[in-house]
Amino acid sequence: MGLLDRLDNPYNFGGIILGTLEDLLNWGRSKSDWYLHFGLACCAIEFMAANASHFDFMRFGTIPRASPRQADFMIVSGTVTLKMAERIVRLYEQMADPKYVLSMGSCANCGGPYWEHGYHVLKGVDRIIPVDVYIPGCPPRPEAFLEGMILLQSKINKQEIFKKRKRLEEEMKNMNQ
Amino acid sequence: MTQQEIYNILKEKFGDEIIEFSHELPSDPYIVANRSKIDEICLFLRDEENLNFDYLVILSGMDYIEKLGVVYHLYSIKHKHRLTIKVFLSKDDPHIPTVEKIWRSADWHEREAWDMYGIIFDGHHNLIRILCPYDWEGFPLRKDYKTPEEYHGIKVPY
Fold this sequence. Notes:
- The complex is a heterodimer.
- By secondary structure, chain A is α/β, with parallel strands linked by helices.
- Chain A is built from six helices and five strands.
- Chain A has helices at about 20-30, 40-50, 80-95, 105-110, 140-155, 165-175; strands at about 35-40, 65, 75, 100-105, 135.
- Chain A has a five-stranded parallel beta sheet with strand order 2-1-3-4-5.
- In chain A, helix 1 (about 20-30) runs antiparallel to helix 5 and helix 2 (about 40-50) crosses helix 5 (about 140-155).
- The radius of gyration of chain A is 19 Å and the shape is globular.
- Chain A starts with 20 loop residues before the first helix and ends with a helix.
- Chain B has helices at about 5-15, 40-45, 105-115, and strands spanning about 20, 30-35, 55-65, 65-75, 80-90, 95, 120, 150, 155.
- Chain B is an alpha/beta fold.
- Chain B starts with a helix and ends with a strand.
- A five-stranded mixed beta sheet of chain B has the order 1-2-5-4-3. In chain B, strands 6-7 form a two-stranded parallel sheet. Chain B has a two-stranded antiparallel ribbon with strand order 8-9.
- Chain B has a single domain (about 5-155), classed as 2-Layer Sandwich (Beta Polymerase, domain 2), CATH 3.30.460.80.
C-alpha cells in the first residue's frame, strides 16, 4: 500500500527508499491515526469489542485519546442527541487538521430508529460536521467497523497535497469543454 | 401487610385526602390520593413503625390527555410490602408538594417529571431540566407535544 509498494525492491540499496513526499505524509497519517472516541450508545459496546484482543483495533496504528487536540480522527459511535450535537461540533473544531470523522451505526448516519419520533435526536451527524466514512449497521459488527477503518486509511492514502489544485483546475477545464 | 390494610390505616389517618382504593385486575392495586397533603402522607408512610416505606422505587409522571398524574411506587425493605399511590393533577395547575426531603432519590425523579411533563413540584430545591437542554421549549412526553422544526439552527425533522 502506498509508499513501500511502489518500489520493486526497497530494502536492498542501503536502506534508501525513493518516493514522493505526498506518499510519505499519507503513509504517516494513515498508519498512525489517533482517535478521539466517545461512546454515545450501544455502538460504543461494539466498538469496545473491536478494541479488545479478538479484533485488536490497535493493529491499525490507532491509539485512543481523551483529548481532541491530540486526535487525528473522531469516531461518532451512537445516537447523537441535539444536546450532544453542540458538544460534538465543539470537539470537532478543537481537533487539529488534518482531521477525519467516522460515523458509526445507523443513528449517527441518519437517525436510525429515532428517525420519525425522536424529537431529541440529530438525524445524521453529517448535518453538523463533515463525515468521511459511514459504517452501516445497528450496531455494526466489529468486522464492519474494521472495514470502515480500512476505507478511511485508503482514503487518506489517496490524498493529494501538492497536485490537488492543478488536478482540480484540469478537471474544471474538462468539464467546461 | 396487604394494600387493603395499608389503605384502611391511611383512610383512618387522613380521611378525605385519600380518595379511593382500586384493586381491579390486571393492574396492581393502587391508592388515589389528593395532591395537597401528599408530602404528609408520604412522611407518615415512611416513619410509621408498621408501614416503614423506606424505599421510593420510582416516581413517574403521567399524561392522561385530560389530566396529568404522578405515580409513587413505594417498597418497604423491612416489611417487604409495596404500595402504589396515584395523584391526579389538572393541566392548568400542575402543582404538587415535593417529597424530595422524604426520600432523597425523589430529587432527580421529580426533575425528570418536570422535564418531561411539566409537573411543578413545590418546594423542590433545584427544579431544573435533567435530560433535555436547559433552554428546551415544551414538555416532550405530553401527548400534545409537537416536535420542534429546529434547535439552535439544526434542522430536527428527518
